[in-house]
Specification:
Radius of gyration: 21 Å
Structural class: alpha/beta
Shape: elongated
Bound molecules: S-adenosylmethionine
Oligomer: single chain
Strand content: 25-35%
Strand order of the largest sheet: 9-8-7-10-11-13-12
CATH topology of the largest domain: Rossmann fold
Protein name: Calmodulin-lysine N-methyltransferase
InterPro entries: Methyltransf_16, SAM-dependent_MTases_sf
Organism: Pelagomonas calceolata
Pfam families: Methyltransf_16
CATH class of the largest domain: Alpha Beta
Largest sheet: 7 strands, mixed
């Protein structure tokens, strides 16, 4: 496609958005941008890029390559962030530790690296969903005392699972094989009792594990993660068990698939009211869901 100078006259621009979600997945959508009439070429490009990011609900640091087809049609190619370790929506980037039942749970250093595909590489850094879910768990000690807990996709921080252990649960922290070194390093660095570690890839069954409570934070953002994740959570949950899921929307199509897959397995999903989340840990971009078998528990 020839890159032409963006024409100045069109106020309403149709944007054809291509999103490079990961190496294997591209999504295509259409949206509109309305640059101001007197905008410079750079400002018109910026308006198109902003419209594409908003439509995809991706973060401001995503790269967007804008090309113009006509005065009123542009193509926006949105690719993964320039720095794969950069955290979108890092509401808690400066948080040093989380208080759980009088104990201080430090956040890990942000220097971990996990080799592997895009999904596994995300295990290297602590995400806002994990912080929000751990803080919420700390407000619900009765859910964890004496219970068996499995955290799925715990990553380098494993905050929800570690918080559950501090609240009296017996916890298995799990993630893909490639992430095990950072998860083990994490467990070794915090003196939290009743925590074990196990490699668990949702695509390979649950290996005999079961849980009263399953915890998962920011683990579903690609379409092909939905079915394996939901199947794994459903297989883990004992009767009467519950999944607490912190979720950050990155694609409404993925969200729809997630809620549909939960319902198909008889798992009832309700959002925890924002006002019930821990004070100071209620960012707009994270929602917490409580998922139970066969009805609200
Ligand atoms: C965005 S990170 C979130 C990490 C952590 N829960 C947090 O909130 O900081 C997504 C996590 O899901 C894990 N994950 C992705 N695909 C997985 C799979 N097929 N099986 C198990 N874990 C997976 C990644 O390894 C990573 O730890």
């Amino acid at each position: 496609m020839a890159a032409a100078a963006p024409p100045r006259e069109a106020r309403r621009v149709t944007v054809l958005v291509e999103h490079d979600v990961d190496e294997a997945t591209t999504t295509r959508i259409r949206c509109t941008a309305t640059p101001p009439a007197d905008a410079s070429s750079a400002d018109r490009d910026a308006a198109v890029a902003d419209a594409a990011r908003r439509a995809l609900r991706v973060e401001d640091d995503s790269l967007v390559d804008v090309r113009w087809r006509r005065a009123d049609v542009a193509t926006a190619a949105v690719s993964r962030r320039r720095d794969p370790k950069a955290l979108p929506g890092r509401a808690f980037a400066t948080l040093a530790a989380l208080d759980v039942k009088g104990a201080s749970l430090p956040l890990p250093a942000r220097d971990a690296v996990v080799d592997g595909n895009h999904a596994a590489a995300t295990a290297a850094t602590p995400w806002d969903g994990g912080v929000v879910l751990a803080a919420y768990a700390a407000t619900r000690p009765e859910l964890f005392r004496g219970k068996s807990v499995v955290e799925l996709g715990c990553g380098a921080a494993a905050l929800p699972g570690l918080a559950a252990a501090l609240l009296g649960a017996s916890v298995v922290l799990t993630d893909v094989d490639e992430a095990m070194p950072v998860v083990r390093r994490r467990v070794d660095s915090v003196a939290v009792p009743n925590v074990t570690v196990a490699a668990l890839d949702w695509r390979g069954g649950v290996g005999g594990l079961a849980a009263d409570v399953v915890l998962a934070a920011d683990v579903v953002w690609l379409a092909d993660l939905v079915e394996p994740f939901v199947a794994c959570a459903a297989a883990l949950l004992a009767d009467g068990g519950r999944l607490l899921l912190a979720h950050q929307t990155r694609s409404t199509a993925v969200d729809d698939a997630l809620f549909e897959a939960l319902a198909r397995r008889g798992l009832a999903c309700s959002e925890v009211p924002r006002g019930d989340l821990a004070p100071d840990f209620r960012p707009d971009h994270i929602r917490v869901f409580e998922v139970v078998r066969g009805g609200v528990g």
